[in-house]
Specification:
With 639 residues, the chain is an alpha+beta fold. It contains 14 helices and 31 strands. A hairpin with a 3-residue loop joins strand 7 and strand 8. Helix 6 packs across helix 8. The longest helix is centred in the first third of the chain and has 17 residues.
């Protein structure tokens, strides 16, 4: 592969539009996440993910002109950026400095500012990196790392900015690339997977944090201070009888290789459950899953997976659902799976608290990933499946040994029926994953599993353990597999996208009211959806309004960390501004069945007895809602 230098900047043409600081700043603020992502993708992977994150932010923040500047406009192909010379200017500045950052340092020349570690932003004591993706993102990252910087820029401009090759050629030439044609030709060697560029894997604005090398930080203390402290401690211990004292007693020093820590790294100590243990066990959850896969006897792979779990290196992409610890196992964990899946080798462990998945490319260990998810207290239904792998927008599951049948169903098409999935030794055939879809939501595919106790629906929300879907009044919901429950969920499927990556355990949909609409417009349904989490906090509640004939329900209100719509307090109140077919605007509100009256204040002032309110309003009016319950309590409307 031939390296390409970045040439001097072309002189702006007199016909180029002039961009002032205010216009460039407005474009930078509006499109900051996209510009930082562009810089992160173009920067050389050899910098390491932590420095790439900080450098991509630094380069983007330094992209403003010092005064008025000329910008050669290449239109962006997304809404809000078309033909914006401010955006074109800052994009060009970000691209140019990202290319400069990849140039080799030379002895007889001063380094460019972009080639040096950024002064700002700075983070001390932590390493920052984006959330990890699946095997597809790992493979694409490896392909991009093998390209020259101009070729990476060409691929990113094609995929992220949706520019045709003629515009890519122009942008590269303006950014100072000597041979844009060679860059485009080199980029042709990477598979076209442009949708993956929008993945969280390449988002330096959505980050995870881990500590730096704690031992090395300790070693940087002054030698004299360390020696003095050691001498003082040793002298005190020698002066005392017996074995001395200390708050840790007989505990081993930090990082010591005690027997329990060493046993957790021994493949021969892994717990492997009998394939028929679940049939007679007193509890049915992940603890009775047998070890499956064609690599369960590969001691080298298992040792590598355990070692990475205990001590993930800087190149390992580690992710954990909220509230999930990512430390090593306390003792030998249980092996659930070890085998080759698509283009990766995958190992899945369970330690009684967490599901841990280790994945590496089948042809090496570069780009290994380690993912964690809470699974403590999982029920039989919640232990029905785990995510094995995601690739090409699809997901494969490993199902529980008691699952007799698996199928794929589009939640938004309840009448279309379910399509059977082939299951081989617990591994399902791939099905479309809603966790990776982008753009307009037109479908939401879920996994339907059947065992001897019934049929359930599970949905992929971007984590290892899929979330269970239920339907019914809080406190007594049932699985959303019946015809009526499927019809209730149909307009709500796309709203599940807001729960991705939140550690959601289950989502319940409850139709709490049906409200007659003004102007003889039929009857609308009020539905409350509540996402419960594995950690027991961060619950998310949506109140949704579905009018007759509508494909989607509209989100009228949302809340987090509230008891509303839950088993502890099954009360909910929400309102929405609605325009009738006759052209009149109304404030509509509905409460659950224990609502005695509803009052609106602010832009609309009216009180109605019962659980419904319908008041004429002006477009854009804002109102506060309060309801009085039959027991005298008052509740506020969700917002």
């Amino acid at each position: 592969m031939q390296s390409q230098d970045v040439a001097p900047r072309p002189t702006p043409s007199a016909s180029d539009p002039v961009v002032d600081v205010e216009q460039a700043e407005a474009a930078l603020v509006e499109h900051y996440p996209r510009l930082v992502r562009l810089a992160y993708l173009v920067l050389p992977p050899a910098l390491g993910r932590n420095r790439r994150v900080l450098t991509s932010h630094a380069l983007t923040q330094r992209a403003l002109p010092r005064g008025r500047a000329a910008a050669s406009v290449i239109p962006a192909q997304s809404t809000g950026r078309d033909g914006d010379p401010g955006y074109a200017f800052v994009r060009l500045q970000v691209l140019r400095t990202a290319l400069e950052a990849g140039l080799p340092l030379r002895r007889k020349a001063w380094p460019k500012r972009a080639q040096l570690p950024p002064l700002l932003p700075q983070v001390w004591g932590l390493r920052l990196f984006p959330r990890s993706g699946g095997a597809d993102e790992l493979a694409l990252d490896q392909h991009l790392s093998a390209l020259s910087a101009p070729a990476r820029a060409a691929y990113v401009l094609r995929g992220l900015e949706r520019l045709p090759d003629s515009d890519v050629h122009h942008v590269l030439r303006t950014a100072g690339v000597d041979d844009p044609d060679a860059a485009l030709q080199e980029a042709d060697g990477v598979p076209v997977q442009y949708t993956l560029l929008d993945s969280p894997e390449f988002d330096p604005c959505s980050l995870q944090a881990r500590p730096t090398d704690l031992m090395r930080r300790r070693q940087h203390l002054k030698a004299a201070l360390a020696a003095a402290a050691a001498a003082a401690v040793c002298g005190a211990l020698l002066a005392l009888p017996g074995d001395g004292w200390g708050p840790d007693g007989a505990a081993a020093p930090p990082y010591a290789q005690n027997p329990a820590a060493q046993a957790a790294l021994e493949p021969d100590r892994l717990l492997k459950v009998s394939p028929v243990a679940w049939r007679s066990a007193s509890r049915t959850d992940f603890s009775v899953w047998p070890a499956r896969g064609d690599l369960t006897t590969d001691r080298t792979l298992l040792r590598r997976a355990l070692a990475v779990w205990a001590r993930p290196g800087e190149t390992v992409q580690v992710s954990a659902t909220p509230g999930t610890p990512s430390g090593g196992p306390a003792g030998p964990p249980q092996l659930l799976y070890a085998g080759q899946v698509d283009n990766a080798r995958v190992v899945i462990f369970y330690d009684g608290l967490r599901i841990a998945r280790y994945a590496e490319p089948k042809d090496g260990t570069a780009g290994a990933a380690l993912d964690f998810a809470r699974a403590d207290g999982a029920s039989r239904v919640e232990s029905s499946a785990v995510v094995l792998n995601r690739t090409d927008g699809n997901v494969r599951y490993l199902t529980a040994p008691w699952v007799a049948k698996a199928a794929e169903r589009d939640l938004m098409k309840p009448a279309s029926g379910a399509m059977d999935l082939a299951v081989t030794e617990g591994v399902t055939a791939p099905l479309a994953s809603p966790a990776t879809q982008s753009g307009t939501c037109t479908s939401w595919n879920v996994l339907q599993v059947t065992d001897d106790s019934g049929t359930r629906l599970l949905t992929d929300l971007g984590e290892l353990v899929p979330a269970r879907l239920t339907n019914g009044r809080p406190g007594s919901p049932h699985d959303a597999a019946g015809a009526e429950a499927l019809r209730s969920w149909a307009p709500l499927g796309c709203s599940l996208g807001g729960l991705r990556g939140q550690g959601v355990r289950s989502v319940n949909a409850w139709q709490y009211a049906e409200q007659p609409l003004p102007d003889a417009s039929g009857t609308a349904a009020w539905v409350c959806t509540r996402g419960e989490t594995w950690r027991g906090g961060g619950e998310r509640v949506l109140a949704q309004f579905h009018t007759p004939g509508g494909t989607y329900a509209a989100v009228a209100a949302k809340a987090e960390d509230v008891a509303a719509c839950g088993a502890r307090d099954p009360q909910v109140l929400a309102g929405v501004l609605w325009k009738s077919a006759a052209g009149s605007w109304y404030l509509l509100a509905a409460g659950s069945r224990d609502t005695a009256s509803i009052s609106a204040t602010g832009g609309v002032r009216q009180t109605a007895q019962g659980k419904f309110l319908a008041a004429k309003a002006k477009q854009g009016a804002e109102a506060e809602l309060k309801a009085t319950l039959t027991d005298g309590r008052t509740v506020s409307g969700l917002r």
